[in-house]
Design brief:
445 residues, mainly alpha
C-alpha cells in the first residue's frame, strides 16, 4: 500500500502513514479502535526514545546551519573567491569545472548544492558559450550523488535512522554508523555519475539531446549577495566534519565504528551552531536577533524532513513486526538468486524514485524491505542497502517531478523538460555501470 500510494499520489507522508495504518490494522486483527490506540502508542513510544529524538533534531538543525551559512555571506565570499580572485575560468571546460568542484565541495544539502553551483556557473557559462542544459546537468549530477556519498548531512540522518530501525527490530546486529559506511561503499550509481560527469566535462562529450542544446544569446552577470570572508563558510564545515569523527570516537570509547551515530550527529550540530554564533555574532557580522531568526527559519524549512523521518521509523517498526521483508524473501527464495538481489533492488528503487520524484521517500519505503530480504536470502546486507541508495538517487536524478531536477533547471535558467532530456543519456550510462557492478560484486562476496 505504501508503494502504491507513493506511485499514485506522489505524497511520501501520505504513503508512509497509510502503510503504517494498514500494517497496524492487520497486526490488531482488523480492529479499528485497536488500530487507533496502537497508532497513538506507536508514535508516543517512538518519541520517547532518545536516539530518535536526536536524529530528528539533527535533521532540523541542518536547516539552521544551511540558512546561517547563506545569511552570513560566507557562501557568497566563497563564490567570489572561486570566480574572481583565482581567475580559474578561461574556457568552457573550466567554466563547467567550477560548478562541478562546488557541487563536490558543498555536500551538506543537495538543493543548496544545485542552487550555488547554478548561480556561480550560469554567468561563466554564458561568457564561454556553454548551453544552460549542460550546466543543469552538472549541477544535478553532483548534488544528490555527492550528498549520498559524503553523508554528513540530512541524507546521513535519514539513512542512520532507517538502519537503526532495522537493528532495533532485530533484523541485523551492530551499529548503524558502521552499516551506513559499508552501504555507502556500494553506492555505485553516485560514484559512476560523478565519474561520467567529470569525463563529459573534461573531454566535452555531448551525446543524445545534448548535441542540439544551444547557448543563450544574452549574457548574464554574476549577482552576489552579502560578501564575507571565505572562512565564514569553510570553518563551520571543517568544524562539522571534525566534530562528527570526534564524537564518534568519544561515544565509541576510542572506536569510531562503535560510536553512537545519533548522539554524534546531534552534538556535532550543536557545536557547529555555537562556533557559528561566535564567528558571526561576536565578530559583528550578524546580530543575535538576526542569527536567531535565520536559525529558526532554516529549521522550519527542514521540519517536513523530520516528519518523514518519524513516519519512516513508524513503518519500519510495523514492517518489522509483520515480517514483511522475510515474507517477500520467502516468495523469492525459490526464484530469485541471492546474486541477483542487489540488481533487482536497484531497479525497483529506481522505478519508485522516478515515479515519486523523491529519493528520501524511496529509502524510507525500500530499506525496511531490502534488509530483511537480504537476511532471508543470506545475501550481503550492506550491498542491498547500497542498491537502495543508488536506485533512489538514480530515479530522483532523472525524474521531472524531483525537487533537485527542478531546482537545477531553475538555477541554470534551463527548461525542466530540456534538462531531463539532455541529462537522461548520461544518467542511463551511469545506471548501466552501476547495474553491472550489482550483478558482478556478489560473485566475489
Amino acid at each position: 500500500m505504501a508503494i502504491a500510494l507513493a506511485l499514485y499520489s506522489r505524497n511520501v507522508v501520505l504513503s508512509l502513514f497509510g502503510g503504517t495504518l494498514l500494517g497496524l490494522f492487520i497486526l490488531h486483527d482488523y480492529s479499528l479502535f485497536a488500530t487507533i490506540d496502537a497508532t497513538l502508542s506507536l508514535f508516543i513510544s517512538l518519541l520517547s526514545e532518545a536516539w530518535i529524538l536526536k536524529t530528528l533534531a539533527f535533521a532540523i538543525l541542518v536547516g539552521s546551519v544551511m540558512e546561517l551559512l547563506e545569511r552570513s555571506g560566507g557562501i557568497s565570499g566563497f563564490v567570489e573567491y572561486m570566480t574572481k580572485r583565482t581567475k580559474f575560468v578561461t574556457s568552457p571546460r573550466s567554466a563547467l569545472m567550477v560548478s562541478y568542484i562546488i557541487g563536490v565541495i558543498i555536500f551538506i544539502e543537495s538543493s543548496i548544492t544545485s542552487l550555488i553551483a547554478g548561480a556561480v556557473g550560469r554567468p561563466l557559462c554564458d561568457r564561454e558559450g556553454v548551453p544552460h542544459a549542460k550546466l543543469a546537468f552538472v549541477c544535478d549530477s553532483t548534488s544528490a550523488p555527492i550528498s549520498s556519498l559524503i553523508v554528513l548531512n540530512g541524507w546521513g540522518a535519514l539513512l542512520l535512522g532507517l538502519i537503526a530501525t532495522q537493528i532495533d527490530a532485530g533484523m541485523i546486529d551492530g551499529d548503524s554508523v558502521a552499516w551506513l559506511l559499508q552501504s555507502v561503499f556500494y553506492n555505485f550509481y553516485a560514484m559512476s555519475a560523478l565519474v561520467v560527469t567529470f569525463i563529459a566535462i573534461w573531454f566535452g562529450v555531448d551525446i543524445g539531446a545534448m548535441k542540439y542544446a544551444t547557448p543563450p544569446s544574452t549574457h548574464a552577470h554574476l549577482q552576489l549577495k552579502k560578501h564575507a570572508p571565505i572562512y565564514y563558510m569553510v570553518l563551520p564545515i571543517v568544524v562539522m566534519i571534525s566534530s562528527v569523527f570526534g564524537f564518534l570516537y568519544l561515544t565509541g570509547d576510542g572506536n569510531i565504528l562503535k560510536g553512537s551515530g545519533s548522539s554524534s550527529i546531534f552534538y556535532t550540530m550543536l557545536v557547529t551552531l555555537f562556533v557559528m554564533y561566535i564567528l558571526y555574532v561576536l565578530k559583528g557580522s550578524m546580530s543575535t536577533k538576526s542569527y536567531t531568526t535565520a536559525a529558526f527559519r532554516g529549521a522550519k524549512k527542514l521540519f517536513g524532513i523530520a516528519v518523514i523521518l518519524l513516519l519512516a521509523f513508524a513503518i519500519g517498526k510495523v514492517t518489522g513486526e509483520l515480517k514483511t521483508g522475510l515474507y517477500l524473501a520467502s516468495l523469492a527464495n525459490d526464484t530469485l538468486s541471492p546474486a541477483l538481489l542487489a540488481g533487482v533492488i536497484f531497479l525497483l528503487s529506481s522505478v519508485i524514485s522516478f515515479s515519486t520524484g523523491t529519493s528520501w521517500g524511496t529509502f524510507s519505503i525500500m530499506i525496511p524491505v531490502a534488509v530483511p530480504m537480504a537476511v532471508g536470502l543470506d545475501a550481503d546486507v550492506a550491498l542491498a542497502m547500497g542498491a537502495v541508495i543508488s536506485g533512489g538517487v538514480f530515479g530522483d536524478h532523472c525524474s521531472p517531478i524531483s525537487d533537485t531536477t527542478i531546482i537545477s533547471s531553475l538555477a541554470s535558467d534551463c527548461e525542466v523538460i530540456e534538462h531531463v532530456k539532455t541529462q537522461l543519456p548520461y544518467a542511463l550510462i551511469s545506471a548501466f555501470i552501476a547495474l553491472l557492478f550489482y550483478f558482478v560484486f556478489p560473485l566475489f562476496l
